[in-house]
Amino acid sequence: MKRPMNTPPPSGGAQQAVQEALALHRAGKHELAMQRYVAILQQNPGNLDALYYIAVLALQQGQIDEGLKVIARALDIGPPQARLYNLKGQAHLRQNRDEDAFDSFSRAIATDPAFPDAYGNRGTLLAEMGRREDAVADYDRALALRPFNTEDICNRAGVLAEIGRFDEALAGFDSAIALMPGLAPAYFNRGNLLVRAGRPADALADYDKAIELVPDMAASHSQRGIALRALGRLDEAEASFKRAAELDPKLASL
Question: What is the pLDDT of residues 147-181, one digit of tens each?
């Protein structure tokens, strides 16, 4: 789920109160934040910012049905907001209601064609539905609006790799790493791509960096073992596989 700080700033007479509640929300003080949001609604039942953030908080706490009820209330009050449809789509994803999620993300885009989160979320859903070319198109739209978003860059690169556009995928991971050198998943995924391209030595360097950044990422240790095995460094490969299994027993069979 997109974090609440990615959304537009609240507006209207209750702006300061919403900002104070949002600061508590971002700090992880969820109970206090909820109390503040509710107090705002008691003063102004039609405050869309408070309703939106209550719905965000409900989804973060796994209360999906409650979150959807709050979203429906906000949409009934209007005017329609892309962020509400986008959040509704995220809620439907949590319920495994992919078609409903797709419809909600599309409604968000129709409401505001310049809302990048909805393109990124719909792109991820399209990729999961096997519609990879459409997914790339949505990531392209998201990045045209928000060029330096590493999540969209990495997701796009992953889909490009799946459809065999390896050079573009590699360039995507390179771009993400240049923007955020501490982004462990980018190194991990670039390593996977390099293994597929027959470059295990280069992949090993990426897995080592991913492990340096996130030592307990079991998949990095497992994939590191695969790269080492391809390089004929069997004892080191066995040690990596053993470490991966310690972190995630499901990897013990590799």
Answer: 999 999 999 999 999 999 999 999 999 999 999 99
Residue 93 CB contacts under 8 Å (≥ 6 apart), including other chains: 101, 121, 125
Distance CA 179, CA 187 (A): 12
Which residue blocks in the chain are alpha helix, DSSP H?
Answer: 15-26, 30-43, 48-60, 64-77, 82-94, 98-111, 116-128, 132-145, 150-162, 166-179, 184-196, 200-213, 218-230, 234-247
pTM of the entire predicted model: 0.86
Phi-psi sector, 194: left (phi>0), alpha (psi -120 to 50), beta: alpha
CATH for the stretch 186-254: 1.25.40.10
- Cβ-in-10-Å burial (0-12, 13-18, 19+) of 173 comes to buried
Structural domain boundaries in the chain: 186-254
